[in-house]
């Protein structure tokens, strides 16, 4: 009975906050593992893989209930998302308090800290926008910092040390 209630809760609400992500992710069909630095890696059906920095606060969401997450809500710290477009239909997005980053198939990192969201594209392209606003499109090596203001988003090629520092936090 407890397992059935948990499955119903997961189907209704998506995957729980990160402190409970392992149990919820497994019941949602995602395999969960940890690396030596306490990062968690969630490998989900439909070609979605999420690497989360130790202590990251997020939840996966399967809006269309097809067994594969299509969205991730990130509240703090960083995640690296890898979406295989040949296996995942319908796109994927990361939603933070400041931004929405959406793709069809790619690899990108999102970091939430100090009232700002930073997005870096590793492979493919990512559209980034505020919850209300005009999107910008990032290509590999490009990033954007999104604060709570309304000024236009500025796409920049990230300096190698900045990109390397973020990716190192995510085991890359």
Automatic annotation (TrEMBL):
<protein>
    <submittedName>
        <fullName>Ferric-dicitrate binding protein FerR (Iron transport regulator)</fullName>
    </submittedName>
</protein>
<dbReference type="InterPro" id="IPR006860">
    <property type="entry name" value="FecR"/>
</dbReference>
<dbReference type="InterPro" id="IPR012373">
    <property type="entry name" value="Ferrdict_sens_TM"/>
</dbReference>
<keyword id="KW-0732">Signal</keyword>
<dbReference type="Pfam" id="PF04773">
    <property type="entry name" value="FecR"/>
</dbReference>
<feature type="domain" description="FecR protein">
    <location>
        <begin position="37"/>
        <end position="126"/>
    </location>
</feature>
<dbReference type="GO" id="GO:0016989">
    <property type="term" value="F:sigma factor antagonist activity"/>
</dbReference>
<feature type="signal peptide">
    <location>
        <begin position="1"/>
        <end position="21"/>
    </location>
</feature>
